[in-house]
Fold this protein.
Amino acid sequence: MNSTLNERIKQARKHAGLTQKELADKVGISQTAIHKLEGGGSRSSRKTISIALTCGVDPIWLDTGRGEMALSGTSSYSTHEDHDHASGEFQRTFPLIARIPLISWDELAKFCGASKEDFNPEVISWIPVAPKASERCFAMKVPDDSMEPEFSEGEIIIIDPTREGSHNQFLVAHEGNNRPTFKQLIHHSDHRYLKPLNSRYPLIEVRGDLHVCGVTICKYKEYE
């Protein structure tokens, strides 16, 4: 007998060892919403992927009941392969989803430049992203309106710390002991600048060593 979405959400939550409130806090919804999902009061949710990744289960399994509950392998990627052995037809295997940690700016200040082994910040929640993200990527919320109109305050940006940053790229960086900032890197003649896209903020000339924490590769937005 096939399980229902409500049953699978409850099973996933218990698999992760979370209470309803803990799961609700991690995915950004109310405990009442989780209670309704588990009790059958709600038949669907736009937070299904976030719930799956937070609980460490396969998003496809949680949504449809197909496949195995646990994410395959040790990677944070979920993969899908359809291979009809009878007909010999084969569809390309490809990553469907990855999850990366959402961290605070205070945590970034502690771990900016840390090696893979030493990068262990406190995680706010998990963000689903396209599989082009490297395994060291992390997510952050845009802290202010200095990068509007392209990036609004509160939007989530995906940062790849394996990239050094080049002219015109959006990146998170800091000069000396200053706090990391999110800006566009500009090279002009022999000078470097950190440019806010919002004209109300001043252009920052880089006069010393610039340490790049990572390059922004995409942004993620949820409406509910």
Remarks:
- The mean pLDDT is 80.
- The radius of gyration is 20 Å.
- The chain has two domains: 5-71, 97-220.
- The chain is about 20% helix and 30% strand.
